[in-house]
Structures are given as C-alpha cells and as structure tokens.
Design goal:
Blueprint lengths: L1 H19 L3 H4 L8 E5 L6 H17 L3 E5 L6 H8 L7 E6 H10 L11 E9 L2 E5 L8 H10 L4 E4 L5 H12 L5 E4 L3 H10 L4 E5 H9 L4 E6 L27 E7 L4 H16 L3 H7 L3 E2 L4 H22 L5
Parallel strand pairs: 1-2, 1-3, 6-7, 6-8
Antiparallel strand pairs: 3-10, 4-10, 4-11, 5-8, 5-9
Length: 328
C-alpha cells in the first residue's frame, strides 16, 4: 500500500512539473499572433506615408495578420521616431524611418532621448529616393561644369530646398564646399515652394526629390542638371547624368526610406519580418509602384543596413556641422 502511494505521489509530481514547463503553445505565441503597426513620423499623404501604406497590404498577406499604419507626426519626425524606440521589442511595432530621422536629426537636434544606432533594430532599407539639382531654364547652364563655372562667377547664388537639415540642404552644402561655390541656402516651408520660385526666376536653382520635381521638369519650367545620388541614373530621368559621373565620384548624401523596430528584437522575429518585407515587395506590384515614385528599391539585409548607417553617420555629422544648422 505504501509503495502504491509513493508511485501515485511521484506520478502527480511529475505531471505537475510537466505542466509548469514553458511549452510553445502556452508561454510563447508564434509570431505574429496579432496585428502589427507601422509608425510613420510624418503626416498622411507624404512620401513616407504612401510607401508605408503600399507596403502594408502585401506585408499583411505575408505575415498573416493585419498591418496598420499609424501616423505620429510632429517635431520634424522626432515624435514618431521616439514612440518607436520606446515601444516593446516584440515585433508588433515597426516604424518607417528616413535619412532625416535616423541620419540627420540625431546630429542636428540636441536633447534627443534616443540614438539611431543603439535604440533601434535595423530591418532593411526599402529604397533610395535621389534628389535632383535643377536650374531656371533661362540660365546659361546645361551641365555640371557650367553650373560650377557660373556659381564661381556669381558668388552667393541661392539654392532652395524644403528646409534646414534636409538631405537636399546637406547635398547643396556638400556641393558648395567641394567646389568652393559659396552658395546661399534658402529654406522654404515646402519643396514645392522652392521649385516654384526657381521656375519663376526668384532663385536660380533648387534641390528636391525627383518625383516632386518631375512636373516642372517635364513642362520645361525647370532644367535638370544632375541626379544627386550614388546609384547611377534614374529611370525617371535617364538622360540626366548622375553626380558621381565625373563630378563627385564619392557622393553619398542620399535620401532613403527604411524599416526599423525597437532595439532588442529577437533574431528569429527580425528574420521573419525581413523575409516577409522582401516577399511583399517582390511578389506584388509594390516594387513597380516604388519605382514610379522615384524610389530605387534596395532591401538589403539587417546586417548590411546596420553597417550602412554606422558607416555614413560620421559623414552626416560633418555635413551638419559644416552647414551650421542646429535645432534646440
């Protein structure tokens, strides 16, 4: 009888131990088991918002869960970026970051509570959006050497951009410093206003993203001189040379849109998200839609993207210092 009691007690204890073991169906859900959100740090209707919404639909199919775009605009992208950095690292909060939020603002603005390298998991660079330098068509400028010669003879010539600290602004500063042009930066409240003034002859030149410039270029009201990027010529302006073609072979000031998550995301979840994003872009019309927006898809691996951010960070820091731009 005592032996039977001991066997029964041992069986009960063994069963209890098994119940306490962390089983995958009990203690850990298979990712993802609920909706995923993508924070966009800018207002609805902009380029980042459009890209996020284009991606969300096929990404939801790949993940098997809804993907919701949440706009958290304000502070030049700081508010939404901080919300992403402070979210749980569980894969259910992603964010669309850019050259502005993750390469420029950290060197431009004091008092940030997050670091673009330390406080984020770098998923992938969705694509580069090259800028275009264009001039008023009444100017005797058709090539980059002609622009450099004209600017040296017209010291203090102005170029307009969509604002202080943007990739457009820093591209202009880089160009000005490299060739000692002493260009004068004019910051507008929007790139469209800078374009309109350049077309009207109020300023001689403008730098803005390629898709934003296309209507005025195609109508002949602006003349494109170079595509400012490092990825070669754009399919949208195939006859316009890239700035790396002889002028500045090492030019790296580029506008990117990329996918981030809070730091500490488990490697298995990182791989799941990255694979789903690549499939979402390549197995749908999203890639073509990106190209039509002037975006050159990249989709590099998390390791490659992280290396890119670390490599280019010192360059952006120097350019911000050179520009004299500062936001307190």
């Amino acid at each position: 009888m005592a032996q039977l009691f001991r066997r029964t007690a041992a069986a009960i204890l063994s069963l209890g131990s098994l119940l306490l073991l962390p089983g995958p169906a009990v203690a850990q859900d298979v990712y993802p088991s609920r909706p995923v959100r993508i924070i966009v740090s800018f207002a609805p209707g902009g380029g980042a918002d459009i890209m996020a919404r284009l991606l969300a639909v096929p990404l939801a199919r790949e993940l098997g869960q809804p993907v919701v775009v949440e706009n958290r605009a304000g502070g030049g992208g700081v508010i939404g970026t901080e919300a992403c950095a402070r979210a749980p690292a569980d894969g259910y909060t992603l964010c669309l970051g850019s050259t502005t939020t993750h390469s420029i603002v950290p060197h431009l603005q004091q008092g940030l509570t997050w670091d673009p390298i330390r406080d984020f998991t770098h998923i992938t660079n969705l694509g580069f959006q090259p800028n275009v330098l264009a001039v008023n068509p009444n100017l005797p400028i058709r090539t980059m050497p002609e622009l450099i010669d004209w600017a040296r003879r017209n010291r203090g010539a102005a170029y307009g951009t969509s604002g202080v600290g943007t990739s457009n602004h820093l591209a202009g500063e880089y160009l000005s410093r490299q060739f000692d042009l002493q260009l004068n930066h004019v910051a507008y409240r929007g790139g469209n206003l800078a374009q309109q003034d350049a077309a009207a002859g109020q300023i001689p030149m403008v730098i803005d993203q390629i898709t934003a410039m296309l209507p005025l270029i195609q109508s002949g009201r602006l003349r494109p001189i170079v595509v400012a990027g490092s990825r070669g010529r754009s399919a949208l302006l195939p006859d316009v040379p890239n700035i790396t073609e002889g002028t500045l072979p090492d030019f790296r000031v580029e506008s990117y849109q990329a996918l981030f998550a809070p730091a500490g995301l488990p490697p298995a979840v990182v791989n799941r998200i990255y694979t789903a994003v690549v499939n979402a872009v390549n197995n749908s019309d999203v890639r073509q839609r990106f190209v039509e927006m002037g975006t050159e898809p990249v989709l590099n691996t998390p390791a490659e993207f992280s290396a890119y951010l670390r490599e280019t960070s010192p360059m952006y820091q120097r350019l911000v210092e050179i520009s004299g731009a500062r936001v307190n």
